[in-house]
Amino acid sequence: MRLTDKPSPGPPSQVATTLTTSSTATTGSTEEVLSSFGGASLDQQLALGSDQFVTPPDAQIAAGPSQVVEMVNSSGSVWDKRGHLLNLFDLNLFFKVPTGYSFSDPRVLFDQVSQRWFASGVAFIPPTYASVVVIAVSASTDATGTWYQYNADNSSTLTHDQPKIGVSSDKVVLSWNDFYQAAFFEGQSTWVLQKSQMVAGSTPVNGAAMGPDSSRSSPVPAVQITSNSDEYVVFNGTDCGTLGGNCIGAIGVVRISGTPLQGNVMWNESDPGLAATSAPPSADQPGMAGSIATNDDRFLTAVWENGVLWTGGNDACLPPADSAARPCSRLIQVTTAGPNVAQNFDIAMTGGGLFYPALGMDGGADMYVVYNVSSSSQYIGVRITGQLASAPVQTVAPGQTIRSGDTTYDMNPCFGTNQTSRWGDYSGAAIDPQNATDVWVLAEFAAVGSSANGDAGCDWATYAARLTFAAPTVSGISPSSGSVGTVVSVAGTDFTPAASVSFGSTPATSVSVLSANQLNARAPSGSGTLDVRVTTADGTSATSTADQFTYGAACSTCATLSSISPTSGPAAGATTVTFSGSGFDPSAGKTTFSFGGAAATNVICSNTTVCTGTSPAGSGTVTVTAIVDGVAASGAATFTYLPPASLTSVSPTSGAATGGTTVTFTGSGFDTTSNRTTFSFGGAAATGVSCSSSTTCTGSSPAGIGSVTVTATVNGAPAGGSATFSYIPSLSSISPSTGTAAGGTTVTITGSGFDTAAGKTTFSFGSATATSVVCSSATSCGVVTPAGSGVVSVVAMVDGQQSSNSLSFRYRKK
């Protein structure tokens, strides 16, 4: 059967496990979007270099304790959970791919057992398409920190296509398809690596290799949410026509046991019957029928938790009341104890296509799906659905398009091709390890490019969202007492943007949702001690002592917090903040300020209306409140913690040695307030710096010589990352301008950008190099001419950078 937003039955199956008929009931619970943000795009990653002009992106996402990592072809990015970009980087450099090779097919996950990030991909080189599988393991939970780098199966003849990674409690498993020089299918290969050694950053790493095996193709190691020593791998044994293997009419369920270090790695396979999939047709766009490639029906995704495995991929099906086969998404649930196929169905859309699904599970085994949607009337967008663990089999929540496409997508004019436009090759989904009821998803959509970047009409972009089926919880409030109008900061989980708050049975007079884990609510009229409860479409938070708010007597003399300045600062804290209001107590320790529950330090009140203090460390946007003489002050303010700043690139990367080149600085976490963000060129400050956003600033280069490192400082703290800027020397005069053909004439050359260090500045007279170069300053050098004849051009070379102009020197016969 196939499921639309209203499930309906499908045709009978001819294989052992049939596609059963579903009722038209949905799960009865709402799949909610807690937060979302635009992720990487082709436009964005082009700032990293021309080698980033690639498609499709192969979008992947993983979530850690405080960060979200996205990887696409060919860039990586780290975000905080509120959608602030922390770092953007080139995956070719990150994975240290060999010279001349290109990176592709990223995969990334966060392993809750080891609390480490794992990432993988392949590097290849035309025309032979020799390749090597590359793997990276983080040294901590910080994705912006150190990663250990490894590689596997460096082959001069085999192309390792679409490697996929899974991690159990004791092993790392990678599977891929091998092709001889990217043309002839050799079979699947699966490598098993010793996890303990990789997490420790050790080398070498013990491993066991299986394959190439031409009877199987496209295996997918599962992302395993709960701890288990065995790693599960699945493949579609019904897509016989794709590569010639997989002709068993079943789903291949493989349990890999043992470890390389113990020398007992085993491939344990069972093949329960499965209603066959088939290759999907190409997808439609407005005005462009069948223009988007949906590839084939191999499995693209797998996730395992406590004996339940979900997998899926593209399929072809006939939606209800449709007259043509469409791209559909096949979803399959397996209980691995048998193994047995528990559910096997398509989701489909009448008149349109659903393709490139990715599946995730939360800590309660609820399943989430993200996929692409398009039709003759819809640009390619991002859509979600899911299934509660308690729901009837083969039912799903109503589908929601969470990001519509912006325009049509045609890669051919941009990439010089003439074929169905590549898309996918897959989407991403991952549990949030700090909020086990939440799952992050990521997929691409058709975006509007720019003629300046050369991607107008072929720009892809990605969209990330945090989803839940869970009702909210409240873990604490601050302050826990006050009067009518007190702004209360509420901490908890699964707060949606439309969440409402009540004090007892009375609604809060205003609610501001800052994140999925924090909101502000203004206390309504009330008395006594009441529970502060949060309500969303999935329910209302349970009561506890942590949510109780006690009303005190209102008074006209109570303190009030009116405003703070500045309203933002570094995530590390240490910002000096001025608090303005009334009723502050200047006595030491009598007036305190809280930033989202964390206390300000060094508080000094000069009078009853003005205090100063130092912000604590934090993240995101938090509520600032005051307590005076033990009583909560009325009023509140918000303070935004700026994500750690990082400099990614500069453009142009060279300029005149005299300075004055207008440079665009690209990165993240820049402070747009005047003089808060500065840039240094090898220790010399850029001038005229202006930041139009947190990611883009402009300024003028100072004078300099050679190649220098460009760094940034934001709010007094050094930013991460750096760039290189090369100064271009220039020539002004040469004296004398003539000399004998035998050479040996001592001449003085003036200009700018000369390096006084020995050997750093050279001069060419035609094709010959001057000798005895001595630069007394950045503007004057003395040299001895080489032998020559006629009139020659004199050019300078400083630290590998050629001068922007030349001078003339005439050789005399005598």
Layout of helices and strands:
Layout: E1 2-3, E2 32-41, H1 42-45, E3 60-63, E4 67-71, E5 75-80, E6 85-90, H2 91-94, E7 102-111, E8 116-125, E9 130-138, E10 147-155, E11 158-167, E12 171-180, E13 184-194, H3 195-199, E14 207-213, E15 220-221, E16 223-224, E17 231-236, H4 240-243, E18 251-257, E19 266-270, E20 283-285, E21 288-292, E22 299-305, E23 308-317, E24 326-335, E25 340-347, E26 352-361, E27 367-375, E28 378-387, E29 400-403, H5 412-415, E30 428-432, E31 435-447, E32 459-468, E33 473-478, E34 481-482, E35 487-493, E36 500-503, E37 506-507, E38 510-515, E39 518-522, E40 529-536, E41 539-540, E42 548-551, E43 560-565, E44 568-570, E45 576-582, E46 591-595, E47 598-599, E48 601-605, E49 610-614, E50 620-628, E51 631-632, E52 637-642, E53 646-651, E54 654-656, E55 662-668, E56 677-681, E57 684-685, E58 687-691, E59 696-700, E60 707-714, E61 717-718, E62 723-728, E63 730-735, E64 738-740, E65 746-752, E66 761-765, E67 768-769, E68 771-777, E69 780-784, E70 791-798, E71 801-802, E72 807-812
Could you explain how this protein is built, in words?
The protein is mainly β and 814 residues long. Residues 1-28 have low confidence and may be disordered. It has five helices and 72 strands. The radius of gyration is 31 Å and the shape is globular.
Q: How is the largest sheet built, in terms of strand order?
A: 1-25-24-23-22-16
Count of DSSP E strands? 72
* Secondary structural class: mainly beta
Please give the alpha-carbon distance between the first and last residues.
97 Å
Strand percentage lies at: over 45%
Low-confidence stretches: 1-28
